[in-house]
Specification:
Number of domains of chain A: 3
Distance between the termini of chain A: 21 Å
Low-confidence stretches of chain A: 48-52, 424-467, 496-509, 527-597, 723-729
Number of strands of chain B: 11
Shape of chain A: elongated
Number of helices of chain A: 19
Largest interface: A-B, 32 and 41 residues
Low-confidence stretches of chain B: none
Helix content of chain B: 25-40%
Radius of gyration of chain A: 33 Å
Mean pLDDT of chain A: 69
CATH topology of chain B: Rossmann fold
Structural class of chain B: alpha/beta
Strand content of chain B: 25-35%
CATH class of chain B: Alpha Beta
Mean pLDDT of chain B: 84
CATH superfamily of chain B: P-loop containing nucleotide triphosphate hydrolases
Strand order of the largest sheet of chain B: 7-8-9-4-10-11
Strand order of the largest sheet of chain A: 2-3-6-4-5
Strand content of chain A: 5-15%
Oligomer: heterodimer
Helix content of chain A: 55-70%
Chain lengths: 729, 226
């Protein structure tokens, strides 16, 4: 009964994990669809730029604590503004409609709250959001308050919008998710189906000897396992369905999603539930085949079969393939389509090889131990040699989980490099500090949290403002990796840009306009030579003309001082000043949308969730199987105790049956993970470093799980010993 | 001559849940004597044996070994005492299936800290005496029931215990084999001066012993005169 309960529980857990993991694998696609659903169709030809004529919206991108925060200002006085998804109506003038997450953040964070002085309206519904934690606000404002970066939005819902997912990461991560969860789950189910394998085998042999033919005995076996697995699988499906129904939003760390986004088609759910039952029955029937065919021999001689050295072949082959993948990763001719299958083959062979090689490891460890005269080692060693498969079943799931999780963590490290390659390295303007009414004549436009991205500072006459970034030449050289020979600290300089949307139709500010603006503002004129670099464009519609104003950029560029006229020193400006006091809150002046920030975050979330799930499965399998193994050997333990074996020796022998083999396999698994992960890094992001700290944590967890499982089993032995005596009576 | 008392119980009672397995049982086992404990299945014979071996702790009463009360000792100390002084034989041998017969036989010596070489020599000596040398390298699953029980007897005697406690040692064997095993057990025990407590439900086996204790419903009753 205990075994059946354990197996049912295992089946239920496996169904929940499989449904969730398959759902998570679809989540990137689902959230991408959501991003397309809320993407705006922009008519760039009608967006006239600096004059704002024809524009009806402005998109402002910020970030808060690493999360993208988008504000969309919609013209409240124009009729041709489409209603965004998730809203029943457009925001009215002076009204802000926030996503629930942003409203929650604003309620807890005064700096955010201060940035939305408008009247709060209804929420943005899930239909208009990518994820429940998305920070998004739609603000209503008169069209004349829209800045020069405003655009004309024709409609929302742009199926052609691309999130720009990195195909290398997407495909590799999909492969890893499969390996991360499917393989350990299969191992876990195999462990469940083979719990107390010796006892079951003996029982089946006894049933066979009673007179049942092979087919009927196998039917009894299959029915028992099938009913148990089916009960657990259905229970797991019910739990999962209840979970996504009752819990519409889910979160793992910084990664959140709508539960419906991981819902699978009914046919796929059915296939998972039935597939697990079929898997359990298959494992159980195949493993019992010999016992049912030869019941007499099984009843008499319980010794296990010889462990063939051929079992090492997949592991060796997997290692060789991964090494080849590593070597080919350095080759400039390596193409993605050819390399990924090679890499996948290496990972799969290694994972299977770890499972198959486990009995060999058990046999080797057993032989070494049997040379000892220590009773505990002798007992453990003989047990390992006698039944290496039992220990293998115990440790294989965790070893495979560690291997998959290790590779996944190394791949996750590549996402940092992905970020580095795709994120602007312009020096962040950390503090925007208002220093009060200026002493001299200034006509700087007030920096408004309503219409301006906080750190995209604009200067100049209304209608002729220029986006500005304050930086020293040294910082610009670092951020652009260009020599910039014409850059001189202390002089205003323009930047050559090639934005097609700014060229023509009077959109591009000319030198005269710039000089006029600077003169009007009382700033020195720009140098005659423009700087020799181009600002990176993001999605083709954000084009700052960079000016390096003297005096506004101190040597460190850590602070930006903005003189404000007394009559413009208003609450909104004050809000900006308050927000500016947080050195890390608002710093990225460039667009941060899904492909720049959220996609790696989604991948990291999925990898983190998969890693936790895989290791949990492995650890649970190890613990369940270790204890079940101890349970199965009651009589053996009773015999040992009866002849006077010290309880400590018995406990130690139980620990030694699992711990050394497990540790050996964990070493092999982590080594293979490093080889495989390194191959991936070399192919995709050679600059990324292997995350040894994360790997160390994974290995430490696995070792701790092994130790805990062994100690639990050792503890159970003491208890069982007493129970067995009582049972005997 | 009065024989030295090795083991005795005083008003021994054992209760498992709501079941009284033994009630106020007092017995004595003297050095070198062979005692049969007879009774029907479920009468409490095995419980008495396990109390004498220090495996089961009594609910009340005392188990005294050579003047010292052992039922209060810790599990570890009782195990150590059992390892040195007691040899146990069970109905089904209860040898470790993964060890060869030799390894099974030498195990108590290794557990007691003997050197490997000495343990091997002593194990082979006992195995020879019990006539199972030819199958000594086989595992329990690869030998006959009689050979298995002889190995179990060898394991019980290998460390020269003062008392051998045998729980239905021939219960799983045919009459002839059972008789051979019993004779081997008693013969070897007699050679090394060990007392034997033989638990059996077969009255005929008690004729091999010096005296018998009859257990009925957890209590000692007077033996029926033959």
């Amino acid at each position: 009964m205990v075994r059946m309960i354990l197996m049912s529980t295992g089946s239920a857990a496996a169904v929940v994990i499989l449904l969730t993991s398959f759902g998570l694998a679809r989540l990137v696609e689902r959230q991408d669809n959501r991003a397309q659903h809320i993407a705006a169709n922009i008519d760039f030809d009608a967006s006239t730029g600096v004059d704002g004529v024809g524009s009806n919206a402005m998109f402002i991108y910020d970030s808060w604590d690493g999360r993208g925060m988008n504000r969309v200002v919609l013209a409240s006085d124009l009729d041709d503004v489409p209603t965004p998804p998730g809203l029943e109506r457009r925001p009215r003038d002076g009204e802000v409609l926030m996503s629930p997450a942003l409203e929650k953040l604003a309620a807890s964070e005064p700096l955010i709250d201060a940035r939305f002085p408008q009247v709060r309206g209804s929420h943005v519904e899930p239909d208009g959001l990518i994820a429940p934690d998305q920070l998004l606000a739609y603000i209503g404002a008169p069209s004349d308050q829209l800045g020069p970066s405003s655009l004309r939005v024709e409609s929302f819902g742009n199926p052609s919008a691309s999130s720009g997912l990195d195909p290398r990461a997407a495909r590799t991560i999909a492969l890893l998710i499969t390996l991360l969860l499917i393989v350990p789950v299969i191992m876990f189910m195999a462990v469940c189906a083979r719990l107390s394998a010796n006892s079951r085998t003996q029982r089946l042999a006894a049933i066979r000897l009673l007179g049942l033919n092979r087919r009927r005995t196998q039917l009894v076996n299959a029915s028992e396992i099938g009913i148990t697995a089916a009960a657990g699988s259905v229970a797991g499906w019910v739990l999962w369905t209840a979970w996504i129904t009752l819990q519409p939003e889910a979160r793992v760390g910084v990664f959140a999603w709508y539960s419906t986004d991981i819902e699978l088609p009914a046919l796929q759910q059915f296939a998972i539930v039935v597939g697990l039952v079929v898997l359990s029955v298959t494992v159980a029937t195949l493993a019992s085949r010999d016992a049912i065919a030869n019941p007499s021999r099984t009843r008499r001689d319980r010794s296990s079969r010889h462990v063939s050295p051929w079992r090492l072949v997949p592991l060796i082959a997997g290692g060789v393939v991964l090494i080849i993948a590593r070597v080919r990763a350095d080759s400039t001719s390596a193409d993605f389509k050819g390399w990924v299958p090679l890499f996948g083959t290496g990972l799969t062979l290694t994972a299977i090889g770890l499972v198959l090689a486990a009995p060999i490891a058990a046999t080797i460890v057993g032989r070494v131990m049997m040379r000892s005269s220590s009773p505990a080692r002798l007992l453990a060693g003989s047990r390992l040699r006698h039944d290496p498969a039992a220990t293998s079943r115990i440790v294989a799931a965790l070893a495979v989980a560690l291997f998959a999780a290790g590779v996944a963590q190394i791949v996750a490290a590549s996402l940092d490099q992905f970020d580095a390659e795709n994120t602007s390295t312009l020096p962040p303007i950390v503090n925007l500090e208002i220093i009060g009414p200026p002493t001299g004549p200034s006509t700087y436009r007030p920096v408004s949290p309503l219409t301006d991205p906080l750190l995209s500072l604009r200067i100049g006459r209304p209608g002729h403002e220029l986006d500005a970034v304050a930086a020293t030449c040294g910082q610009l050289r670092i951020s652009t990796n260009r020599p910039l020979p014409d850059c001189v600290d202390g002089q205003v300089q323009t930047v050559v840009t090639t934005d097609p949307h700014y060229v023509g139709a009077g959109g591009a500010p000319g030198q005269i306009e710039i000089d006029a603006a600077l003169t009007y503002a009382g700033l020195p004129l720009a140098t005659s030579a423009p700087l020799d670099f181009t600002i990176p464009f993001v999605d083709g519609y954000f084009t700052p003309a960079i000016i390096v104003p003297p005096d506004l950029a101190p040597a460190t560029s850590a602070r930006l001082y903005v003189p404000i006229r007394a009559d413009q020193y208003d609450p909104q400006t004050l809000t900006t000043a308050l927000a500016a006091q947080s050195p890390t809150a608002f710093w990225n002046p460039l667009i941060t949308d899904i492909d720049r920030l959220d996609t790696p975050r989604i991948y990291r979330g999925i990898i983190a969730a998969g890693t936790i799930a895989a290791l949990a499965i492995g650890a649970v399998a190890l613990t369940v199987a270790t204890i079940a193994n101890a349970l199965e050997h009651r009589s053996r333990l009773r015999a040992l105790s009866a002849i006077g074996a010290d309880p400590a020796s018995i406990r130690l022998s139980v620990i030694l049956q699992t711990a050394p083999v497990s540790l050996g396999l964990l070493v092999i698994a982590s080594t293979a993970a490093i080889i495989g992960g390194n191959a991936y890094l070399q192919f995709s992001y050679p600059g990324a470093a292997i995350p040894y700290r994360a790997l160390t944590a994974l290995i430490a967890f696995s070792i701790a799980a092994t130790a805990l499982a062994s100690l639990l089993a050792a503890g159970a032995v003491t208890r069982l010993n007493r129970d067995e005596i009582v049972r005997q009576e | 001559m009065t024989l030295r008392t090795l083991l005795r119980t005083e008003d021994l009672s054992v209760r498992f849940g709501s079941t009284d397995a033994l009630t106020a049982v007092s017995v004595e086992i003297a050095a070198g004597e062979f005692v049969a404990v007879v009774g029907a299945s479920g009468s409490g014979k095995s419980t008495l044996l396990q109390c004498l071996a220090g495996i089961v702790r009594p609910t009340s009463g005392a188990v005294i070994a050579e003047g010292e009360r052992i039922d209060g000792w810790s599990d570890r100390v009782r195990s150590q005492w059992r390892l040195t002084n007691i040899g146990l034989v069970f109905q089904f041998g209860d040898l470790l299936p993964e060890l060869s017969l030799t390894d099974n036989v030498r195990l108590p010596l290794l557990l007691a800290g003997s050197e490997k070489k000495i343990a091997n020599e002593r194990a082979h000596e006992v195995i020879d005496r019990l006539g199972i040398s030819d199958v000594a390298d086989r595992r329990p699953g690869q030998v006959s029931g009689g050979q298995l029980q002889r190995a179990a007897v060898a394991r019980a005697l290998v460390h020269s215990p003062t008392v051998v406690l045998a729980d239905e040692p021939t219960g799983a064997l045919d009459t002839t084999t059972g008789q051979l095993v019993l004779e081997a057990l008693l013969g070897a025990a007699r050679e090394q001066g060990s007392a034997v407590v033989l638990v059996t439900h077969e009255a005929r086996l008690s004729s091999y012993c010096d005296r018998e204790i009859v257990v009925q419903d957890g209590s000692i009753v007077m033996p029926v005169p033959s």
